[in-house]
Amino acid sequence: MAIRAGEADQMEDTSPPFELPRVAVVITCYNYRPYVEQAIRSVLAQTYRNWDCVIVDDASTDGSAEHVRELLQAIGDPRLRLLARSENGGQIAGFRDGFAATDAPFVAFLDADDIWLPNFLLAHLSAHLNPTRTASLSSSDVFFVDSERTLLASTYVMLRKPRPEPEAAGIGIPAFRQLGAMAGELGYQSDHPVTYFGPGAYGWMWAPTSSMVFRRGALEPVLAFPFRVKTGTDYFAATCAHLAAGSLILSESLGLYRLHGANVSAGAAYAGGHVQQSPAYLAHEATMGADVLDYVLAHAERLRAINGRDFVPGFLAQHVRRFGTLAADPRLTPFLSSKNRRRQLRKRFTRRVRRLFGWAPR
Question: From CA 125, how far away is CA 250, in angstroms rounded?
């Protein structure tokens, strides 16, 4: 039987039955002229090609914006564009401006002093589109390098990936091949495990900003919230977005995290183990904790609808243990159990007695 032309074309069509998602890449830059070109070229080198990128210069004083403008003109890739702020607004302003300038369903932030390895976007999208668990964000491991890209370490210790010692329970995401068979661009296979942690997993479990890819729907209410702090944006962006649908942790190191002595959050030279936080970052840690508290209380009804009525009280109990100065906030009372209320009343009474008699706090 003869096959008509239209039928032959239909039989030969091997394209996937869906469109692959675009990723919005936001590079935030403030006085990182020596490094920003390497960050931009690491985006251009991505094996996953469906992205667009906005470089947000936060009123740099070292000529970063002019350097980026000339570089983009020389490269000539329409997927790259510069957004130069007239006034410095801090990291969160760069996040917000870059986010508002894009509309892709996935958003990745890259600090201008960091570098992605070529499979960064591919690995993250493959993880996000797994058939087991969907999540608000993903975070991968990183290599530590110095200002000259000399390798210092091959893991970020605080990333909550599988290790020999016991960890908080997570769900392993098995390797899968269906998506790769349907869309070859997403056929990424890795020997490194991917672990899902649900919204109830508390505490920092991610690597820094340049390791993260967010779902737009999870990040939108977070960046719309009037946080007080201007830096440490990765802390409350990840913490608050995680509350909607959890996180995927990729054990593979997919980027270079540069320690050059002028990092916002890291101050001292790397000594192994946890990265030592700068004094400036530690000074406003309590404010960041208060910002997260404000966010959770403002979104309590939505988070309860997503995760159940016990979710918000459970989170707040853990958060107050982490940031003890928040315990006196009267807004917490409706969310505390009678046992927790009695505990908080005892703490308040003890603090008042110590102040009254001039006792030093322990």
Answer: 11
Output the six-digit token pair for 290.
Answer: 């208060």
The set of residues, in sequence order, having a beta carbon less than 8 Å from that of 323 and lying 6+ positions away, is 286, 289, 290, 293
Cβ atoms of residues 89 and 58 within 8 Å: yes
* Two structure tokens written together for 69: 């403008």
Tokens 């920003």 locate to 36
Parallel/antiparallel/unpaired status of strands 51-57 and 23-29: parallel
Which pTM value belongs to this model? 0.84
Which residue do the tokens 């190191």 mark? 253
DSSP state of 27: E
**CA–CA distance, 232 with 209 (Å, rounded to integer):** 9
Residue position matching structure tokens 């210092």: 152
Q: What is the DSSP code string of 122-161?
A: HHHHHHHT-SS---SEEEEEEEEEETT--EEES--TTS--
Q: Per 3-state DSSP, what percentage of the chain is helix, strand, and coil (rounded to 5)? A: 40, 20, 40
Dump pLDDT digits (tens) for 197-220.
999 999 999 999 999 999 999 999
3-state SS assignment for residue 213: strand
The tokens of 18 are what?
């869906």
Q: What is the CA radius of gyration of the chain?
A: 23
Give residue-wise pLDDT tens across range 98-129.
999 999 999 999 999 999 999 999 999 999 99
Token pair listed for 151: 């390798």
